[in-house]
Design a protein that fits this description.
It contains nine helices and ten strands. By secondary structure, the chain is α/β, with parallel strands linked by helices. β7, α7 and β8 form a beta-alpha-beta unit. It is globular, with a radius of gyration of 17 Å.
Length: about 240
Amino acid sequence: MSILLEVCVDSPVGLKAAIAGGADRIELCSSLSVGGLTPSPGFIAFASKSSRPSRAMIRPRVGDYVYSEDEIDVMRRDIDTVRAAGLAGVVIGASLPSYHLDEKIIARLAEHAKGLELTLNRTVDMSPEPLAAVDMALSLGFRSILTSGGSLKAPDGAETIAAMVRRAGGKLEILAGSGVSADNVKQLVAKTGVREVHGSFSAPWPGIDERLVCFGYIGPDARETSEAQVRRVKSALSEI
């Protein structure tokens, strides 16, 4: 069985690079530098015309995943935009102040997104009970959980990811993401048993204009999805 490669992107350029490099699925975002926010309606519409299925991040702001009723209303409206555009699914999550997953809010969002493919986002990596998150996701009809196994990088959380794969029992996909590269992806798959991997596979933004940096329009360490990096990961996966 082949390993699915999902690439997260936050621009039309990045989307085209991911597809050209061999991505099987897209996670559509804005602002990847802060972990990904909800993409704009225009970007959602643009992605809906692409040759790969996309799931859109639904995250209305930077910071934690503890949401107010106003923010939940915004998220529901964003889910409506994704559905109307014909994208495959959404990526959602919510936390309590304790970092435990907020099952009530997640259930509300999942119900509103009924009929779309659901990925539970990396809120699970701050949760003290990642295995319990698998049970919750299964009960709510999720297709995938994106996780680094509670670590900053997936290779460091391989043991927990493997335990989540076993807990899922093939009923949903555990999607290993963060720190995945062509150099470690084969070992990560072997250690964890995942059938899907995720990453931005980026490279430094070419020719950053210092004037743009001075005005705060771009960070000095800005990055963009790299077709070459995506292609390298795809090639490594083909050898499994």
